[in-house]
Structures are given as structure tokens and as C-alpha cells.
Amino acid sequence: IHNQSSQEESLLSAAPPQQVTLENSGLWKSFHSIGTEMIITKHGRRMFPHCNVSITGLQPFANYVVMMDMVPVESFKYKVSEQLLVAGKAEPQPPCRTFMHPDSPATGSHWMKQSLSFLKVKLTNNTLDQHGHIILHSMHRYYPRFHVVQADSPYIVRWSHFQTFTFPETAFTAVTAYQNPKITKLKIDHNPFAKGFREGGTHSHSKRLPSSSQTEEAKTDLASDSQRSPKTGHYSTWAPEQEPPESLHAENLEMQEYDYSCEEQMVPVSVSYQPYRSELR
DNA sequence: TCTACTTACACCTTTGAATAGG
DNA sequence: ACCTATTCAAAGGTGTAAGTAG
């Protein structure tokens, strides 16, 4: 753990260090090794793989809010020509929205009891979206970022005791249609909703997909994933402009007050901010 | 002509209400 | 009255092909 200041050192020494672990790390790595792509649509598309994390080191009786947002990996966009190529400067950032885990706020013991699923997160390319989905630019790369905030209410968050965690293997390219057939194959193989497109299925399109040697490799990765090979975050620094290091990233953010009742707010990485709470079915 | 995006579609899983049984 | 299990229809999540936009 690399602490930024003596003030943070005293803060951390008062409580056990928070740790966020990516539970389905093996599946993410299968996609990452090929180049993860996430479909974004006008009406919002779920992520696959979706983020599934566990948290430790919280104070059992304190309340916390857990959030997720998306951060650009670098400051340029891509185009397709055989493979993804850099195609100039990135588009201006759309409104940065945050997905608040529906259990928020909840006690530390609640969060640590079981892993947290971000299955309901939806991505859109519609900058006028009214459903609170996370807005991204197509042909840009992003990675999800997780925030753990000690707070009694999702609307008034003290940004002290605020920690952020990211996982390099969760970086992805936002696309409106799949560019890499290997990614398509992996998704069809492992997303139950895409079962109709699997080889041997009754769907007419199923035989159009090229077979890939990558699939067996991916299955091996998944086997290890099923044995739970989660990866735990620790404190280090890497700039989004750089290729992420193997290690995970967690940053202590500046202490400040934040009122979620506002429509658009700034987060400590100088992007505008919209609170979003998913609907429970 | 090329690339990026949108839409309709068939196929599938998930959800939740209704019902039955203990 | 209460709980659990089962059934089943509706809602919603998929990638694809074909079309549109620029």
C-alpha cells in the first residue's frame, strides 16, 4: 500500500484497508486477451461480462454507498480497418453518469456478506438518454471504476473515506456492432441470452460464425474462473493514458463534500457527473 | 464506395404471478 | 393461515442481416 499523505496514513491506520476484488476476473481476462468489445445501443445494452466484485475491510456498522462509472482509457478514438486503429483525438466527453448499486446505502457487514453484481448496468450511445444509462462514445476505450463511499444517504456523500478501484482487465472498446469475430464467438459461447446463436442450435445464423482456436483457450480460462481466481485491488498509480500495469489500481481521492441532489456535478477527475440508481425488478 | 449506426427479427433466459400441495 | 414447489405466460436480453446515413 502506497499512501499519498500522512493524513491518509492516519485515516487508514484507524480502519482496516478496504479491498475490492473482481470475482469473475478469469472471464474478463479471456475477453481482454482478444480485445474486449461492449455493444452500446440507443436504448441501452447490458455489459457482458458484467462486473461482479466483493469488498472487504469495511466497518461493519457504518453505512456505505457503492458506485460504478466509466473512465476513458486514453484521449483518442479508433476506426476499423482489419483491426482497430487510432483515428484521431477523442470526442468531447459525454455527461459522465454513475451507476449506484441498488443496495446503497447499506452497512459494511451487508456489503461484505456477498459479492456485488453490476448486471443491471446498461451502456448507451444516446447522449440524450433519459433512462440514466451510462453514456459512452462508440469506438472509444473505457474501463469501469468502482467507488466505495462511507455515507448514510446516497444523496449526501462526504468524500472523505472515499476510495476508488479499477481493474485493468475490464478495459473495453465501446462499439455499435462487433468488430472482432472472436469476441462475438466468446460472447455467444458464454452469455446464456445468446444461446440461440450457438453452433448446433436451431437458429439460422448459428453456422455463419467462423470457428476459432481462441475458444478452447477461453474455455481453459473459464475453467480457472469457475475455481474462483479473483484478483484483489491494491494501491498503486497508473495514468489512463498508459497501458495499465498488471496490478490493480486504487486511488484515494481528495477530501471534499458532495451533494447528490444536483443534476450534474464534478467528480475528482474533472468530469461532469449524474447520479443513477437502477430500478429493481 | 466505405464506415458507422439503426432496426426488426427469431431464439433464448429470466421473472413473477397463479396455482397446487403439504 | 402459512410455507414451499411447480407451472407458464410475459417481459426482456441476445447477435444477425439488411437497411440507412453521411
From TrEMBL:
Region (Disordered): 194-256
Residue span, T-box domain: 22-199
GO CC annotations, alphabetized: chromatin; nucleus
Keyword Transcription: yes
Compartment(s) where it occurs, according to its Swiss-Prot or TrEMBL record: Nucleus
Main location: nucleus
GO molecular function: DNA-binding transcription factor activity, RNA polymerase II-specific; RNA polymerase II cis-regulatory region sequence-specific DNA binding
GO biological process: cell fate specification; heart morphogenesis; pattern specification process; positive regulation of DNA-templated transcription
Record key words, sorted: DNA-binding, Nucleus, Transcription, Transcription regulation
Keyword Acetylation: no
Protein name: T-box domain-containing protein
Taxonomic source organism: Cynoglossus semilaevis
Residues of the whole record sequence present: 61 to 341 of 341
